[in-house]
Input
Amino acid sequence: MDKIWLAIMLLSLIFLLFNSPETALTSMITASGSAVNLAVKLLAVYAVWLGLIEIVKRTELSRKLSSLLSPLIDLLFGKVDNKAKDYIAMNMSFNMLGVGNAATPTGIKAFNALQDGSDKATATMVMLLVINTTSIQLLPTTIIGMRVTAGSANATDIIMPSLIATIISTVVGVIFVKLIYRKRKLKKNKIKTK
Amino acid sequence: MQLSELIVPLLIIFLLVYGMVKKVNSYDCFVKGANQSIDLVVSIFPYLVAIFVAVELMKVSGLTALCTIILTPIFSILQIPPELSELILIRPFSGSGSLAVLENIYTNYGADSYIGRCASVIIGCSDSIFYIATIYLSQTKVKKLGFAIPIALVATLIGVVCACLLCKIM
Output
């Protein structure tokens, strides 16, 4: 991540030297300003969602949800402790419902619960990241709304293809993670037995 | 009114009623939970700035435009229309940025055109990979992501190719 960031920054700034060097600083500050605006918006959204999520936790609905999704979570993530499992269950449910803003705080908390102090992502973390980044939305509500506004005659006809495409990308991602991390595990075990 | 609009309020009503049955003080919980949002936003804020600055510089410097030109022939091999290159390029970095590109596509080509429908499905089956990776890990010590980003990118690209194919037949 740090390398990608550095590469983008350097390349862009070198480009700007030839285009319009005077805009470099102003556009950086404008961007930082949009980040401030987003942060304020997120503060509002997360306050509401984290408030509700706390009730979900206290009523132990999150426990129920995670035992309901337990077979799926075990299959995808292997063994994880209960605290992380509750957050993963909530994160996946919010993602499927299309409320990404509620999925983010639960995802962050899941990573908190999963971390073991090392700087390397574990297979479980990689799996959670890939599932989140390949999007498992059941109903793309935002896009349907935008299509209606843009005057689409058939705003909802993208639901089926979206669903199929999102399932394909998520399944492909999951399979890749499983394949790559199983191979590594086998290698490690081989070295150990030697 | 759509069914999807009812889901969230119904879930919240269910949650509050369930809390009453379980004799949980929902008010206290809500306040306690809401309080955590300050810490959360404070911890993700610097990462937001870093991403936004990089994406903005990429845009104003013309790097995005250049990458679009480089990627277009590769996309055309994969049967992805060249009009969608910019969208696919922005998508992994910024959710709001890609929605702005989508809006443009709707205005230029129409929401019901092949390009417009492809763009909708692409947004529906993908997510802002770099943004999510940064924000989700913001409260951990993890720096090395292993294969997470390459896997996510490849899986998303396969999803995008399928999206364009599906829009042709559906």
